[in-house]
Amino acid sequence: MKLEFPKDFLWGSATASYQVEGAVHQDGKGITSWDEYYHMPNREYNGDISTDHYNRFKEDIKLMKQINQKTYRFSVSWARILPNGKGEINKKGLQFYDDLVEELLENNIEPNLTLYHWDMPQTLMETGGWLNRENISHFENYAKILFSHFRGRVKLWSTINEPASEVIEGYIQGTHPPLRKNYSEALQVAHHFNLAHAKVVKLFKEMNMEGKIGIALNPLPIHPASDKEEDKVAAEKAYAFHSDWYIAPIMAGKYPEKMFKECQRKYKSPRIQPGDMELLRDAKVDYLGINYYMRKVVAHNPDSTGNIDDTFKYVRVKDGNYTDWGWEIYPEGLYELLSKIQDDYGEIDFYITENGMGFYDKEQENGEIIDNDRLDYIKQHIIQVHRCLKDGISVKGYYVWSAIDLLSWTSGFEKRYGLIKVDFKTLERSIKKSGVWYAKFIADNFMECN
Ligand code: BG6
Fold this sequence. Notes:
Keywords: Carbohydrate metabolism, Cellulose degradation, Glycosidase, Hydrolase, Polysaccharide degradation. Pfam families: Glyco_hydro_1. It catalyses: Hydrolysis of terminal, non-reducing beta-D-glucosyl residues with release of beta-D-glucose. By secondary structure, this protein is of the alpha/beta class. It has one domain (about 1-450): TIM Barrel (Alpha-Beta Barrel), CATH 3.20.20.80. The chain has 15 helices and 15 strands. It has helices at about 15-20, 35-40, 55-65, 80, 90-105, 120-125, 135-150, 165-170, 185-205, 230-250, 255-265, 275-280, 330-345, 370-390, 435-445, and strands spanning about 1-5, 10-15, 70-75, 110-115, 155-160, 210-215, 220-225, 285-290, 295-300, 310-315, 350-355, 395-400, 420-425, 430, 445-450. α8 packs antiparallel against α9.
């Protein structure tokens, strides 16, 4: 069967500033929460150099061009533009993104810019980060600088990458900065993320910016482990916790009702001020970005302490296809998720802002990477994108995570994601088999499959 895609479909790949740029002290950049985190005692790796994309972006864009990419999603490091998160602009930092955007445009690669992918200026983190409501106006001010500067050149914007990850890993599990374990704080941070996002969407419209603005969320499709009522309830709770808590405020300016009541009862959080919900309701996005990696299967947890995230427990599926990091490969989940969001909230344009899988890449004797697993992963997910299109779900673009090997937040340089290999000793780059396949697929814009 021949699966054809619309002519204007945007195929691309993505990265994030801290994970690829390196050059952490170059040209006046301020310290970020992740610089701080990786320089705590006993950390085995850090992003000080990473792929050195900051100094090698031209070479990287050349390779993206060879892969026939139509778009590249990257994030701006707030602390390169405003080393303390506010105050004076660091011209050299802005110049870097200027050069990057110009290089992309010259190569006919559409820039897709994310304003915040987790690297918070440390000065702001020290005054409370996203827990401090004042951070919202600092973010707005930072966004305004970028909007004015890139007006007419960058047409695809995303406010925040995966608020859920920072909320859950940074404020509940305590594994990402700022290493907190506090439900009440976590819920407040989620609310501040939503307000910051909404303010910036509003600003985008007020400034009559050309193009589209959205957000990149990472909702998970959740399945109950069995047909038992208690497992079904567990799955509903898990979906509200991981997914709908972040989708509902963006799509409908509200919080899922049951979970909201439970959070108020248990944690008296989030605290909502007059006007907040109106702001969320008025901030209509032009698209919804979805970062999709895996599904979760959950069962009722009889040993729950009663917290919102442990009334359910994760279950490993017999015969499921898992990576070495325990992430389940489940391409159908992408279709299920998009259909559910459309059923719940109506039609919207989607971009798959991240999709990919971390593997241990094994080099051939000549250094080549024959990454059949990654190639197959990407292919299977693209087939699901086609299924969405066929069923009237509007997907406009797809970004492989990641453009190039980079630092995995909690698994370092062992877990590889790139279409482009990086030899981290020499920083030499080469295109993997998956990248060669993707190049041909993009050029054809169709796929033959059985
Ligand atoms: C996404 C993030 O959640 O997952 C990326 O947006 C991240 O930044 C990717 O790299 C994979 O996760 P990890 O932990 O393997 O880096």
